[in-house]
Every structure is written in C-alpha cells, then in structure tokens.
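Work Package 4 report. The design task specified in the project plan requires that, given a folded chain encoded as structure tokens, an amino acid be chosen for each position. We show below one input record used in the internal validation round.
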C-alpha cells in the first residue's frame, strides 16, 4: 500500500515538490473551472476547532473545483467534541468511511501531528495553535514566486507578532530553505520564539545578526529588536566589526496580526505596529510588495489597499489554485515527478511516565487520553531533544537509561552513550528519584 502523505509541516514537502506544485497551481489558475475531473468522487472533511474564513473556504472551493465533495465541521463546538470526544477518536471516525482527506485546524500545538497518527487518510494542517500553518506558507511562497519570478535569495521583512503567528513559523523555515535574507521586525516583546531561531540555525545554517533598520523608517521605529538572518554565513564575515547589517533593499514586507487570542492581551491591537503609505515610502521599501495572511485589523492602514504593491487580497485568491494542487497531490490524483522528502523524522518514545514537553498548550498536554509521547533527538553532543509534536525544546536536567535505571548528568560521557530509545529526561534529581531511578555510581 502506498504510504499516506500528510502535510503537517512545511518540511513534509521537498523543495522540488514545492516548485512542481506551483507549476501545477499556475496551470489550474488559468481556468479554475476546467479541472472538475481531477478528484471526482473524492471527499474532503474540514474539521475546524478554531475560526476560519479563507483557509476553510479556499480548501472547500479547491475541492469542489476539482470535482470532489466536501463535509464541513466548521464549528467543532457543536460537534461531539462538545461531549468530550477526543481528537484521536474524531479523526478515526471521520477517516473511516466518511472522507478521503482531513483538513484540520486546532488550537493546540502538535494537534495535526497527533491526528495524522490516528487517521487512515491524509491529514492537512490548517493551523495548529501557534505552531505551523504550512498551506498558508505555500500560498505566500507562490505569491513571491509569481511576483518576483524566483524564490532564491529574496530579502523579506517579517513584521508584527512573530512569536505567536503560526504563518510566520512555517514561512521562515521555507524562506530559509530558499536562501532568503529574513529581516525580523517584531512588535515589542513578540520576537521569534527561541525554538524557531534554534531550528533555523541548526537546520538551515541561518545566523541571527543585529540589523540596522533605521532605513526602514516608521515600520521599524517601535520595534525592540531587528535581526537579519542571512543564510550564507560567509556574508557575516563582511560585517563582523559591528555585527550589524544594513537593510537597504526589500522584496516583500509580510505583516501579521497581533494574535491576541494566544497571548491574552486583548488591548494590544490598539498599541500595535502599523504599516501605512508613509511607512512604505522608506527608500528600501519602494519596490517591496505588501503581503498579509489576513485577517487584518489595523496593522495595515486602508490607505495602502489601492497601492499596486499591496497584494494581500490577490494572495488570498491564490489560495484556491495552490490548495487544488496540494489536494490533488495528497489524494493521489496528481503525480509529481519531483522526489519527495528523503525520510520522515524519527520520533522516539518517552518512557518515563512524565510528559517532558514544557509547552502546556501542546496537544500532548491538552489531550491526555490518547497521548502518544514522542521526542526528536536534535543533538547528541550536547544532548538536546524537542517535543515530537509541538517542536519545543525539552528542558533536560538529568538523563536516565530505561535499562540500567540509572541517571547521569546531561553532559556526561555516560549520557551520550545511552540509546535514544532508552533515554529518559528529568528536570532534576528529585524527579528522577521519584520515578525510581538512582544515581549512577561512577
Ligand atoms: C492566519 C491563521 O489562521 O493563522 N489566517 C489564515 O489562515 N489566513 C493568520 C491569522 O489568523 O492571523
């Protein structure tokens, strides 16, 4: 049986596949009504545990344009979830006979990964908490690709709530893969999360460096920190004196909304940064396109709507052909010639009986009944691990071995020798002792 392909993270697609999907989307876009045989007879189920307009409707439109059918559970509060049904049970049922593919949006980080483990059909992550939103990223990249004619080496400003915007997290991983220079202009206190920066550094070789954003004028004025992460480390050597890079030319400004529902500061929107005609008059932004995943509140002034550089509504419209290509591929109705990603990342089981994930909004904490705990080993020396679901780093004080039942200092030679599937992570000695482990004698 061919393996089920899911789209949980943007890393589930190879770079060549992304480019081939874009070629296909461009074909679909020429006449959206001409493809009603591609997925005839297939059914998509939308399971939305959070509000959505564009993502759900563009997926459903895409499926119908491909000739398929759609089942919508857009308000999961009116479904059996309100009776306490677990996500795992829901996806098992829906993927049984009801649908051939599930599009899931959920407030907990890692929910799509968990759903994919239980579903019998492909699962598409339409946003899991503040973690990832890979199909939005494909729409965003597609817009860059169409407008700029390439994806390699672009200079992109990411502005606003970089901490909680899942669209930003998927987007930076993809931009880094294409060798973009990423200028982060966060709203004060809403910088990229540490686990995202670490992953950019470790997997994509990008290095956060202070950037001199004074040339960006109004846009960067309120921003606490501005970093530029060139993916070509040799560039840094040119600037090592000050470790400051100037931002003198930008291809795109990607603005994001304050994700107030995730950080609970409802008033933030009134103090939030704003992109307007005057901000866009700064010299490096003259040729930059303006993007936004939408919905916007006041972070993009209405005076920009008629500016030819503003592409946010076009970007939203392009969600349909892009999602048509994604659906056709995942449903096996479109065969790509591009090689898929080489291997799936291995998750090792967590054995200690204690969930080591520090993120209380991770699905491993919010859905306890069908909890499958797993971690990714991100580095052997120094020993580091991340939650297999929400990707946040696991704080490790001591490490134990499930066969010897001994614990060791994290950076000891003994700890490094333990097989990944025998590793146990402890916050401290007290926790290790409470779980029946004892200190190694040597
Ligand atoms: C985004 C989301 O849900 O993360 N919306 C979308 O899918 N276009 C952005 C947001 O809500 O700010």
């Amino acid at each position: 049986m061919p393996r089920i392909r899911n789209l949980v993270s943007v890393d589930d697609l190879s770079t060549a596949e992304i480019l081939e999907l874009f070629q296909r989307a461009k074909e679909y876009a020429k006449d959206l009504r001409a493809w009603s045989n591609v997925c005839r007879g297939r059914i998509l189920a939308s399971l939305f545990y959070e509000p959505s307009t564009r993502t759900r409707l563009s997926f459903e439109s895409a499926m119908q344009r491909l000739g398929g059918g759609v089942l919508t559970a857009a308000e999961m509060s009116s479904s059996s979830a309100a009776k306490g049904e677990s996500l795992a049970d829901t996806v098992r049922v829906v993927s049984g006979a009801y649908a051939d593919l599930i599009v899931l949006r959920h407030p907990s980080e890692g929910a799509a990964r968990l759903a994919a483990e239980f579903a019998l059909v492909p699962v598409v992550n339409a946003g899991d908490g503040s973690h990832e939103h890979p199909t939005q990223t494909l729409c965003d990249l597609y817009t860059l690709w169409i407008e700029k004619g390439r994806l390699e080496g672009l200079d992109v400003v990411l502005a606003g709530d970089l901490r909680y915007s899942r669209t930003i997290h998927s987007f930076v991983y993809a931009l880094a893969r294409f060798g973009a220079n990423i200028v982060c202009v966060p709203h004060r206190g809403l910088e990229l999360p540490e686990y995202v920066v670490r992953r950019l550094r470790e997997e994509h070789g990008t290095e956060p460096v202070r950037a001199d954003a004074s040339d960006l004028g109004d846009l960067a004025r309120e921003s606490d920190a501005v970093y530029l992460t060139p993916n070509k480390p040799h560039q840094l050597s040119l600037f090592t004196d000050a470790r400051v890079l100037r931002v003198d030319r930008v291809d795109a400004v990607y603005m994001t909304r304050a994700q107030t529902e995730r950080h609970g500061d409802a008033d933030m929107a009134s103090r939030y940064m704003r992109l307007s005609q005057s901000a866009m008059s700064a010299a490096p932004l003259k040729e930059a396109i303006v993007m936004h995943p939408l919905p916007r509140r006041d972070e993009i002034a209405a005076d920009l709507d008629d500016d030819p550089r503003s592409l946010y509504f076009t970007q939203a419209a392009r969600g349909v052909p892009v999602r048509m290509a994604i659906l056709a591929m995942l449903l096996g109705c479109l065969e790509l010639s591009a090689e898929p990603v080489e291997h799936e990342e291995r998750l090792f089981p967590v054995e200690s009986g204690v969930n080591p994930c520090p993120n209380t909004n991770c699905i491993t904490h919010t859905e306890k009944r069908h909890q499958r705990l797993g971690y990714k080993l991100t580095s052997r020396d120094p020993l580091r691990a991340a939650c297999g679901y929400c990707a946040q780093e696991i704080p490790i004080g001591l490490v134990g071995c499930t066969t010897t039942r001994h614990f060791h200092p994290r950076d000891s030679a003994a700890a490094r020798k333990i097989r990944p599937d025998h590793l146990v992570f402890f916050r401290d000695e007290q926790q290790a002792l409470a779980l029946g482990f004892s200190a190694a004698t040597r």
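The domain at 135-316 is CATH 3.40.50.1370 (Rossmann fold). Validation will be extended to a larger panel in the next phase.
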